[in-house]
Design goal:
single chain, 531 residues, alpha/beta, ten-stranded mixed beta sheet, two-stranded antiparallel sheet, 20 helices, 12 strands
């Protein structure tokens, strides 16, 4: 499944997820704790709180203490923070809300002991789709020193993380077997022969059939618009008159959809790593191919300029492409028996481009691979895939497919995908063919579709849209496009590398915090330096 994501998926392993790995490692060292194996990868197993203590009547949040959540994820809670959890029932289908059928949305509320003059709640979505907002909120609660939220924000807001419908702890979608997930990630990312292409088509059809057989008529109910309507229930459940929201990557699409549906219910909204809702499926996929190709070129330029830090210098592109080509016939065996196929190497490359700090890891992994050691490749790839040491996966990609394909009513045909594969490979040598093939899952998806709106957020207050010039997954060009579409968007630029910007530098932090806390819109055209 190395290339099954479209533009709003942000190829999933967003920048904040890699920060999580660093955070977990630092905490383990500083606190002498053993970090669970799933902590750097995200959710691991979906863990729901007992319904008898956390579920409540529709539209209400019955909070209960849940210190076990940060304990499970990191080994401890953040100093001075309390953790409470709740489940909120929402209609399965907002177009038929009287049916009585519901999904349970899992929330966590994190409150600082230093909070004074509380402004309200800050609702957070980390992206994906499929990323756990519950877990992201926990990681962000450890503060700015660990890549989390600044004290200025946690002193004013309750931090609310939520898992959208079908994700993590919220009635999770699970319909892809570990064997099929392994096969997807291991498959050639850009199958050259028609035989290889057809084998990938059959694999995607098998996955689609499995999900269709299990969920049937529910499949369109995992759409972004349904989830955005859930967010208004969450706003009410936490007691806020208006929504303050921080959305990363796919979370920008979720936020933009909310702003169009409920513009008068928005207090403040930061959309970081913008998805452009106006792009059709093909346009969005090509945009992402362009973004990753540009980010990979930036990585190769870094290698050439800092050869002392890059063991595959001076020609990093050749080293990576040679590794992928060699793996097609002579893959290196990993310690767990897996073969480091071209697919797994490609996933490792994707994973490494989400942060600038991932560049050195990729260079090291490719150098090790040449020596017969696949450990670095599988470390990067498994982090991205949320694959655990026992060979099982979180439900990240199950939810990812369910949401993306529910949203998509304009997927190309198999013949069109095959044609685009060749055209895009010529324009974007490493990523073009793979991102074209990445449209296969929704081309064979069995469920009905429920596309999201793409228009202005009329009567909404100013919305801050943050973009990173070197972003691979949500290319910088999307930033102004989303701001323009909403009609109330204001662009804030970070001239950095990696996926998403907040909270990367003091310039970005100061601008976003002033907006979230005091509703001070950043200076028009503000560009923050990389360092």
């Amino acid at each position: 499944m190395a290339a099954t994501r479209r533009r709003k998926v942000s190829i999933v392993q967003r920048r904040s997820r890699l920060v999580v790995a660093v955070l977990a490692t630092i905490l383990a060292v500083s606190a002498g704790c053993t970090v669970p194996s799933f902590a750097p990868n995200g959710s691991g197993e979906a863990r729901r709180a007992p319904s008898s203590s956390s579920s409540a009547q529709a539209g209400t949040a019955d909070w209960r203490p849940c210190p076990e959540v940060p304990q499970q994820l990191v080994g401890q809670g953040a100093p001075g923070m309390t953790y409470d959890c709740a489940d909120v029932e929402v209609p399965r289908d907002w177009n038929n809300s009287g049916s009585g059928e519901t999904y349970s949305i899992s929330l966590i509320r994190i409150r600082s002991s230093k909070q004074q003059g509380r402004t309200g709640s800050l609702l957070i979505n980390p992206g994906g789709p499929g990323g756990s907002g519950v877990e992201t909120a926990v990681y962000l609660s450890f503060g700015e020193a660990f890549g989390g939220l600044p004290a200025e924000v946690t002193n004013k807001f309750d931090v609310i993380g939520f898992d959208p419908r079908g994700v993590g702890r919220s009635d999770p979608v699970k319909c892809i077997s570990p064997a099929d997930q392994d096969a997807s990630f291991a498959a050639p990312p850009d199958p050259a022969s028609l035989e290889q292409f057809n084998q990938l088509v059959e694999l995607n059809k098998r996955i689609a059939t499995s999900c269709g057989s299990k969920y049937g008529d529910q499949l369109p109910l995992f759409s972004t618009e349904q989830a955005a309507r859930d967010m208004d229930s969450l706003r009410k459940a936490v007691g806020d008159d208006k929504l303050t929201y921080l959305g990363f990557s796919y979370g920008t699409l979720l936020g933009a959809t909310y702003a169009q549906l409920f513009p008068q219910n928005v207090r403040a909204m930061v959309l970081d790593g913008a998805v452009d809702p106006k792009e059709n499926f093909v346009e969005g996929s090509e945009s992402q191919a362009k973004g990753f190709e540009r980010a990979f070129t930036n990585f190769t330029n870094w290698c050439k300029a800092t050869a002392d830090k890059c063991p595959i210098a001076p020609d990093a592109r050749k080293a990576v492409t040679d590794a992928i080509s060699s793996a097609a016939t002579k893959p290196v065996a990993g310690s767990d028996g897996r073969q480091a196929t071209s697919g797994w190497i490609f996933v490792a490359v994707i994973s490494s481009l989400y942060t600038e700090s991932g560049w050195a890891k990729l260079a090291g992994a490719i150098a090790q691979l040449k020596e017969g050691n696949a450990r670095g490749v599988f470390s990067l790839a498994d982090q991205y895939a949320e694959r655990k040491p026992d060979g099982t996966y979180s439900n990240l990609f199950d939810a990812n497919l369910a949401v993306n394909c529910a949203d998509t009513d304009d997927a190309p045909t198999l013949d069109e995908i095959r044609r685009l594969q060749g055209e895009w490979r010529a324009k974007y040598p490493l990523f073009g063919g793979a991102l074209a093939v990445g449209m296969l899952p929704c081309a064979v998806w069995p469920g009905k579709r429920d596309p999201y709106p793409a228009g202005p957020a009329k009567d909404a207050p100013p919305i801050v849209v943050v973009g990173t010039t070197g972003d691979p997954a949500t290319p910088y060009e999307n930033t102004a496009d989303l701001a323009s579409m909403l009609g109330v968007g204001h662009v804030l630029t970070w001239e950095g590398e990696g996926h998403t910007a907040y909270p990367s530098t003091p310039c970005i932090v100061n601008a976003v915090d002033a907006y979230l806390i005091d509703l001070k819109v950043p200076q028009e055209g503000l560009r923050c330096p990389a360092k």
